[in-house]
Structures are given as structure tokens and as C-alpha cells.
Amino acid sequence: MLDWDKLRIFHTVATAQSFTRAGELLNLSQSAISRQISALEETLQVELFHRHARGLLLTEQGEILFKTVSDILSRLAAAENALLESKERPRGPLKITAPVAIGTAWLTPHMREFGELYPEISLSLLVTDREVDLTMREADVAVRMFPAKQPDLIQKQLTSLRNSAFASNDYLRAHGVPTKAADLKNHKLVVFGEDPRLPFADVNRLLEAAGVEPKSVFKINSLFGMLKAVESGIGIAGLPEYMTQGVSKISRVLPDVKGPVTEVYLMYSMELRNSKRIKVFKEFLTRKLAEDGLSKVALAS
After folding, report:
1. Domains assigned to the chain
2. Which secondary structure element, helix H or strand E, spans residue 152, and what is its range?
3. pTM, two decimal places
4. Which residue in 64, 80, 145, 228 is deepest, having the highest Cβ count within 10 Å?
5. How many other C-beta atoms can be found within 10 angstroms of the C-beta atom of residue 174?
């Protein structure tokens, strides 16, 4: 029978790729960590790590053990959360992941209200444009701008977000207000660029709508950066409308130029299908989208 303490230490070392870092995380000395790993390797009669100056790398056998231990830890976490939620009110940790733009500009401001409604839920929000692996419990629930790629995820389409053209009021006073797409050739445009990971498809449709080479183009690989560029008066940009709510210094232009519509999904693993935490979070998001005029019904009108 393998010693679970040694397996837990092994998993931490493999994740940290360092005896020193693992020791800090587990409050153990580096020598104690090293002894536990050596004892585990002796028990299994295999080497688990390649040791070199830049850190530790798992051997083929180490990869097999790491995947198994990760799966066990994931199942234990799911069992713990299920036991916590067997009580009347939803409680326990809830780790949410969302793209940087919507996670920062829209979701974060609503987290205080959610926390006040459900004080026994411990919230964590990971904003990243990387596709976090929900099946490996890197997060419990994801807000995403694309449908699920894995068959073992449950997904719900939350809404469709409209994108429109915006410019600062100072810019429009200085350069005039475009009235048709062809006018963009005489304006400066702010576009998403220099990054292969697009926040959503057709993010630069405004540039395509111009149909001609604009006066100049400023590229930045961040939707939030595009908003700040527009606020500062650099030029006109196509932005999700949720990002411009409450920003008084900018105005929508070219209402007849249709920007892309982005579908927004909520998804989580099958293991969490009965989670009260996810149920109340899903209900909360649906309500806040409607209140902010971002629901499907509001967008259809």
C-alpha cells in the first residue's frame, strides 16, 4: 500500500517543479521533501523525476503517477464539496474562470453582491484567455465566448453580446463623426492585434467594414487596452457594449455598421451537475445580465 502522505508530497513537487518551492508550500524542509520522494521511488522501484540545474521534470513513470494522483485529488475535492453542499444553504469554494475582458470589466463588479447573497461560498475568480481545463478541476465553472469542446462538460448559453463602434467625445469633436463605413478611411482605428489568441471571432470586423486602408491603425492585444485607447482619444474601435457601460467620455458611432455578435456560455463538469453553488451562480448571472440590459431578450429588441 502506497503512503498517501508521500503521494501528496510527490504531487506538490511535480506541480511546483522544485523541492524548495514544494517545501515552502507544505511547510517542510527541502531535505525532508527529498527524503520522502527518494523513499517513494525506492518503494516503486522507478525514478519519478529527472533532476537538472533548471528544476525537476517528470519521467514517463512520474507522468503516469502524477495523472493518477491528480485524478484522486480531483475526486476527493468533488466529494468534499458534495458533502458541504448536503446542507441547506450553498457553501464551500467556488472557483470561476472567465476571459480577461468580461471577467474584469463586467463580472468582477458583481462579485460583491454575489458574496453578500451567499456568504458561505468562498469565491475565487481566475481571469485568463487561456482555456482552463474544467475536467481537471483547474476551475469549477467557466464563462466562455465559445461552446464546449469537451463532450463531458455541461453548458448553458447565457446570452449573445453585441459589439459596436465607439470613439471618445474629444476625438469626435477634433476629427468629426463618421456617418458611414466608408468614412473610416479618414479616421484612426484601434484594433486587436499582435496576438494569435483572439478574444472572440471577428474582433476586427470594424477594420474589415471600412473596406479601405484607414488613415492609421493602432494595434493592441487587449480589449481592455482598446477601451483605454479609445478613452484617451487615439481613435475609433469596435468594442463589446458591456465594456462601455458607465463610461461617459465615449459615444457609440456608426449604428448601421453591424459588429459581430458573441455567444456567451456557462460550463462546468458533469461531476458538478448537482452543485448548489453552481446553480445559484448560474441564476445570479442570468439575473444580472437581464438587469444590465445584456440578456437575449434585451439584445433582440
Report:
1. 4-84 (1.10.10.10), 88-301 (3.40.190.290)
2. none
3. 0.65
4. 145
5. 9
